[in-house]
Amino acid sequence: MTQRRPLPIMASIFISDLHLCPTRPLIAGVFFDFLRGDARQADALYILGDLFEYWAGDDDHTPFN
């Protein structure tokens, strides 16, 4: 009889709204440590929301026509 191996468990990690920026280096350091450590075991890393603290939108406050 052939012994069956268990199927591998797939691990997905979700992160959200880190808002990385130069004025908060501790958050960036913790995130990079996470990427070098535990995140390497995941099958997928999903980044939701804002990864960087940056606004590329329209700052014009006039009504839309």
Task: Tell me what you see in this structure.
The chain is of the alpha+beta class and 65 residues long. Helices cover 18% and strands 15% of the residues. The protein has a domain at 14-48. The chain has one helix and two strands. The protein has a two-stranded parallel sheet. Strand 1 (12-16), helix 1 (25-36) and strand 2 form a beta-alpha-beta unit. The longest helix has 12 residues, at 25-36. The protein starts with 11 loop residues before the first strand and ends in a 17-residue tail after the last strand.
Residues in helices, as a percent range: 10-25%
Strand content: 15-25%
Computed structural class: alpha+beta
Instruction: Kindly state the number of beta strands.
Output: 2
Order of helices and strands: EHE
Q: What would the principal axes of the Cα set say about the shape?
A: elongated
**Unreliable segments (pLDDT under 50, ≥5 consecutive)?**
none
The largest sheet, given as strand count, sense and whether it forms a barrel, is: 2 strands, parallel
The whole-number mean of residue pLDDT values reads 84
Order of neighbouring strands in the sheet with most strands: 1-2
Q: Output the radius of gyration.
A: 20 Å
Ends apart, CA distance between termini:
74 Å
Helix count, DSSP H or I runs of 4 or more residues: 1
